[in-house]
Amino acid sequence: MTRNVTPRALAVEALTRVANGAYSNLQLEQTLSSHNLSDVDRRFVTNLVYGTIQHQLTLEYYLEGFVKPNQKVLPWVKMTLLVALYQEIYLDRVPKRAIFNEAIQLAKDRGHEGIRRFVTGVLHAMDRQGLPDVSKIKDPLKRLSITYSVPEWLITALQEQVGEEKTVSILETINQPAAQSVRVNPLVTTPEAVKQSLESEGYEVTPSVVAAGAFRLDDHPASESRVFEDGKVTIQDESAMLPVEALQVRPGDQVLDACAAPGGKTTQIAALLDPHSGGKVTALDLHEKKIQVIERNAERMHVADRVDAMALDARKVDDKFKDGKFDRILVDAPCSGLGLIRRKPEIRYEKTPQDIQQLQKVQLGILDAVVPKLKADGILVYSTCTILKTENNEVAERFLAEHPDFEALRVTTKLNLKDDRTTDTLAIYPDDYDSDGFFVSAFRRKK
Questions:
Q1: N or C: which end of the chain has fewer CB within 10 A?
Q2: Mean pLDDT calculated for residue range 243-250
């Protein structure tokens, strides 16, 4: 392998693109697919990219003490230093000499002599002087922010919502690797058969404690398994399976999945339907390309005959559907995605309180648009993959206040999660079950 395509160089390139607005998961996938790397190198690149993003505020805090306040540093040079710092602090098995040599060589390959000297000087200064002690930061909010690499506004919002102890528990969880989970397709197989098949391929398989008919796997990609190729499972986080459980789908139902891409919940709904009894799920998304993704997933999961996917803004359903058409409606709404921080760690740096308020307006707009399409006694489920009340409880409360023809319905799940809670809604935090953060609420249209 030539120097300019080492794992560290690829990580720096991917991180620089993420800093310019690319999604970390998509950019990483593109980087890995365009280079013929060994499994070891693929894992190393993945570790460097996600780890550096997860700890970015911490790493920048360390770095700023060794860079002059007004000194301009090119984005890729900064990422080179952050990647080196990440390895030195968080990866015990990587020799310091290898970290320094590769960073300096990368600076030489991509830059000029001045950049090479700058990178060399910063690395050696850090080595001589040592790094500042984060625990000695006097401001408690800043100390938490730098320790866990989470913006102060988000920590404050969580503290107000769940208290200090729960906030720290969440913060300690979100920089851990995300678990890999799959949902079994009950149309074509059984959980027992899937478990046996996956174990025969060398996967470590553990039944989910969050969602029925689901398993956790080790870190070998589930997409490379035979059962995935055969449409016997799909990759889906355990928490993301709960909104469909709450929907209480019946075989002959007409179901609207108002914000459907990439189709995980659509295919989950479809597997519960019987097309011979009239069961159908209508899946909407804004973009035609995403509709194609939904359709491909439906084909692979053997449910294309009960899925009708179309490109349509859910706020414009009045253009296509008559009132009272659907027995069930799922609004898995566009949201900040802050429950997915482990999978998309850059989200924490990109969102602002103003973004959250704007998203609430979008969420309420979608709910207002779809409710006339629900039959009397029909069930509406509103869910998000975020952990902030602004997009969750506040939306549910406003919806009920503005729609007196609806009543709250207690969210139920097949494994009776948090059965002793006092709320009708269900909030899943990342530290509860080591899954994605999720919120689920349910409403019934009064007869």
A1: C
A2: 98
- Cα separation, 406 vs 446, in Å, equals 6
* Mean pLDDT value across the chain: 95
Q: Which residues contact 296 (CB under 8 A, 6 or more apart)?
A: none
Residue with tokens 């149309």: 187
> Cα separation of 392 and 382, whole Å?
9
Contact 134, 110 (CB under 8 A): no
Does the global pTM surpass 0.90? yes
Q: What count of Cα atoms within 13 Å lies in the side-chain half-sphere of residue 19?
A: 18
Q: What is the pLDDT of residues 201-219, one digit of tens each?
A: 999 999 999 999 999 999 8
pLDDT tens per residue, range 374-403: 999 999 999 999 999 999 999 999 999 999
Q: For the purposes of burial, counting CB atoms within 10 Å of the CB of 417, is it exposed (0-12), middle (13-18) or buried (19 or more)?
A: buried
CA distance 49 to 51: 6
pLDDT digits (tens, 9 = 90+) for 328-346: 999 999 999 999 999 899 9
Structure-block tokens of residue 399: 């919806």
Distance CA 62, CA 446 (A): 58
Dihedral in degrees, nearest 10, Cα atoms 55, 60, 65, 66: 100
* Helix/strand/coil for 70: coil
Q: Name the H helices within 226-385.
A: 226-229, 242-247, 264-270, 288-300, 347-350, 353-370
List, in sequence order, every residue forming a beta bridge with 328; answer none if it has no partner: 255, 379
Q: What positions carry a catalytic annotation?
A: 385
Query: Which neighbouring-strand residues pair with 45?
Result: none
Q: What are 218's two structure tokens?
A: 């080790």
In the structure encoding, which two tokens stand for residue 361, read together? 């307006």
446 CB neighbour count, 10 Å cutoff: 11
User: 15-40: per-residue pLDDT in tens?
Assistant: 999 998 888 888 999 999 999 999 89
Stated length of the chain: 447
Angle, in degrees to the nearest 10, between helices 7-19 and 96-110: 60
Of 413, 25, 382, 421, the C-alpha closest to 214 is 413
